[in-house]
Write a structure and sequence with these properties.
Elements: E1 3-10, E2 14-23, E3 28-33, H1 42-52, E4 56-66, E5 75-76, H2 78-95, H3 102-107, E6 113-114, H4 122-172, H5 175-191, H6 198-212, H7 215-232, H8 239-260, H9 263-283
Parallel strand pairs: 3-4
Antiparallel strand pairs: 1-2, 2-4, 5-6
Keywords: Endonuclease, Hydrolase, Nuclease
Family: Belongs to the YicC/YloC family.
Cofactor: a divalent metal cation
């Protein structure tokens, strides 16, 4: 499920801002970018994301802003820099080499520049976590708002399928008489009316029409649709369960179409399938 949330928290020393973005994914794919000073908090943040976000392709971006801008600035080891530079000058002089650029070379030597990004203290860690939880709360609110829109859309599409099922029942009454008439006319033309064994013909008609009966499919489809709506509104509603129910709805719609033997019903079935495909696409967004 897509989502977005941002949170920030600060004390007299530092302000942390946490931004969370997510795209659809069946599993939790988590990426965290955070300052080096709080890299030891990554495992904690990953654990909290697993519990609070559940799934999605999630990116967490953390930034810090210190009241004293020099607090985390890099520092130069002056004595070590001088030592490297003087040594390089001596060697260059002995070898008769050009001394241009020796200062930059000395500046790039190991441990000349030190990053003052030591691990944060406990108070700064709390500031970071408070900002994170604010971002998660905002992120969850975004998802819930999107979920309400999604729920209304799913309900509307299931209701459409039920309406289409009512249309099937409205045109179904003429289906069997038309099939019987068509078969009778075909037999009259093929073998002649006087050569037809009426009793055998009626038995075959009954057997054939029984195979085309769609009563069970209609009952099961209506039951699955109602169960889908019930599960959608349940407190423990989840995407996998709704996905299983939609699969059962699809089976009944497909069988209904294959047994219909009626152009009007088959057109209605196509519209049912269109709505069911939209339902399945939307279920990819449901946790």
């Amino acid at each position: 499920m897509t989502g977005y949330g941002v949170g920030s928290h600060e004390n007299a020393k530092v302000k942390y801002t946490v931004e969370i973005k997510s795209l659809n994914s069946k599993f939790l794919e988590l990426g965290i970018r955070l300052p080096k000073a709080v890299s030891d908090k990554e495992l904690t943040l990953r654990g909290e994301c697993s519990k609070l976000i559940e799934r999605g392709k999630v990116n967490v971006l953390i930034s810090s802003e210190y009241a004293d801008q020099t607090a985390k600035a890099s520092s130069i080891n002056r004595e070590l820099l001088k030592k490297y530079y003087n040594q390089l000058k001596d060697i260059a002089a002995q070898l008769g080499e050009d001394q241009t650029g020796l200062f930059n070379l000395a500046l790039s030597m190991p441990e000349v520049i030190a990053n003052n990004e030591d691990e944060v203290d406990e108070e700064e860690g709390k500031v970071l976590l408070n900002a994170f939880y604010q971002a998660v709360e905002s992120f969850t609110g975004f998802r819930m708002d999107e979920g309400k829109v999604l729920k209304n859309d799913l309900e509307k599409r299931v209701e459409l399928i039920l309406d289409y099922l009512g249309q099937v029942e409205a045109v179904e009454g003429d289906r069997i008489p038309l099939i019987r008439e068509r078969l009778s006319q075909y037999m009259d033309e093929a073998v002649g009316k006087e050569n037809i064994d009426k009793n055998r013909f009626e038995q075959e008609i009954i057997f054939y029409i029984d195979k085309l009966d769609i009563t069970e499919e209609k009952v099961r489809l209506r039951s699955h649709c109602n169960y889908f709506l019930e599960a959608l509104n349940a407190a423990d509603s989840n995407g996998k369960k709704l996905g299983f129910i939609s699969q059962e709805m699809g089976r009944e719609i497909n069988t209904l179409g294959s047994k219909a033997n009626n152009a009007n019903i088959q057109q209605i079935v196509v519209r049912m399938k269109e709505e069911l495909e939209k339902i399945k696409e939307q279920l990819l967004n449901v946790l």
